[in-house]
């Protein structure tokens, strides 16, 4: 029996595939199994992965890790028992003994440190799949370093808008983006700003975020079903000056957040939405009063993370006609200092090393407030925002590609839906 699955079942591995000891067809012995799980988790953490996926395929086990937002296959093993064994081992590590439990939080020892992790189990056709999220640091800032707006890789105009929004004495700021867009990191960086220790700040989180000095962080166990709004209501009884909600997902929370902002508090909320106007539209669909929103809202930030070209193997490149066409760009758009990474040891042959944030930011002025209060069509609000100088996520991404900091491929991957 071969140790690799048919290629049709696997994405091409770009990182080094871990070498496994000899195994028996119906499973691994306990020592080898524990080593398989531990080696994969420690390698993932060393390489800065955010999640490790253990997937049962029917033929065996595939282990993939997400680094800089992209999944890479790192290990494939044949043998139907192995996936079940590996997932059982993960459950044991998190102390999950009840088969009905699908999620667990805790700390496990990786690379000699106790690291906070979250395990999520999903039943698939071939058995259970597991995702273990490694949660020991905010992604854009190295562990132990301060989380600041200046350090997240935003362009200077974007940073200026974020500083201005963070400095508003009261009102609501929404930070939008899909999962993995870095919106939580931005939310925390804005919270960290202007914290002179004289204000009471409460952060309500669906899962424990990075520890922030001077901020009361409360995790909502179980997340959904009114848990966030109940926690928000309880937090407001503590009379906070600033409050953050990550994420705001229901109408009751939207209503409370808006009232708190109108009462003179600073409210920051992570929300769904692919771009600024999508986030505004979704917020209005919670059924909130447009007048209250128009008066209380200070701004909306929509963001993404783009992988940056590896500086160790970067080389100049001229964009191809196909790359330009994929982004609906004219050939004149090929003017710029475009670069790509050839692939080297430093970037695990991917050509990318690290990420930086891009943002589309709507800062409300009187004109935009009036349009929201009047429930103007989104197209009208967008036209007014563009007139003010708001750039789109696609434009921000292209700016980075022209400066040789990312590639057009990456621009297409990240801004496909905006
Ligand atoms: Zn490289």
Can you characterise this structure?
This protein has 418 residues and is α/β, with parallel strands linked by helices. The chain has 2 domains: 7-134, Beta-Lactamase (2-Layer Sandwich); 149-414, P-loop containing nucleotide triphosphate hydrolases (Rossmann fold, 3-Layer(aba) Sandwich), CATH 3.40.50.300. The chain contains 13 helices and 15 strands. It has helices at residues 30-46, 80-93, 156-166, 183-192, 227-236, 251-262, 276-284, 290-296, 321-326, 366-373, 378-388, 393-402, 408-414, and strands at 51-56, 60-67, 70-78, 103-110, 113-124, 127-134, 171-176, 201-205, 216-219, 242-246, 266-271, 297-309, 314-316, 339-341, 352-363. Strands 9-8-10-11-7-12-15 form a 7-stranded mixed β-sheet, with helices on both faces. The protein has a 6-stranded antiparallel β-sheet with strand order 3-2-1-6-5-4. Helix 5 runs parallel beside helix 6 and helix 10 runs antiparallel to helix 11. The chain is globular and about 70 Å long. The two termini are 46 Å apart. The structure holds zinc ion. Zinc ion is lined by residues 310, 312-313, 341, 343-344, 346-347, 351, 353.
State the gist of this model.
The chain has 418 residues and is an alpha/beta fold.
Give the topology string: H per helix, E per strand: HEEEHEEEHEHEEHEHEHHEEHEEHHHH
Query: In DSSP terms, counting alpha (H) and pi (I) runs of 4 or more, how many helices?
Result: 13
CATH architecture level-2 label of the largest domain: 3-Layer(aba) Sandwich
Q: How far apart, in Å, are the first and last alpha carbons?
A: 46 Å
Q: What small molecules does the structure contain?
A: zinc ion
The count of domains is 2
Helix percentage range? 25-40%
SSE class: alpha/beta
CATH topology of the largest domain, what is it called?
Answer: Rossmann fold
**What is the gyration radius calculated from CA atoms?**
23 Å
User: How many individual β-strands?
Assistant: 15
Beta percentage is 25-35%
